[in-house]
Specification:
By secondary structure, the protein is mainly alpha-helical. The chain contains 5 helices and 2 strands.
Length: 78
């Protein structure tokens, strides 16, 4: 299993996308196939994101993986 460190950029961007899309953490957790508690832990840096999580989050929010992990400020999927 590939882990992506749960650093601030990813969680900050995911929180902004949750607010922008008027979703709940519970909604997003269900969409990516994990429990709400685990998703909350990832948002707060108590658990790491897997590559699967990042990939599914990018799909849910229609943004690039590079944007989610802080490697790019461009949200668009290339």
């Amino acid at each position: 299993m590939v882990l992506v460190e749960s650093h601030g950029d990813t969680s900050v961007r995911v929180r902004k996308l949750i607010r922008k899309n008027r979703l709940t953490q519970k909604d997003v957790a269900a969409e990516i196939g994990i429990s709400q508690q685990l998703f909350t832990n990832k948002l707060h840096g108590r658990a790491n994101y897997t590559l699967r999580d990042i990939s599914r989050l990018a799909k849910v929010f229609d943004v690039s993986i590079d944007y989610l992990v802080g490697r790019s400020d461009a949200k668009e999927v290339a």
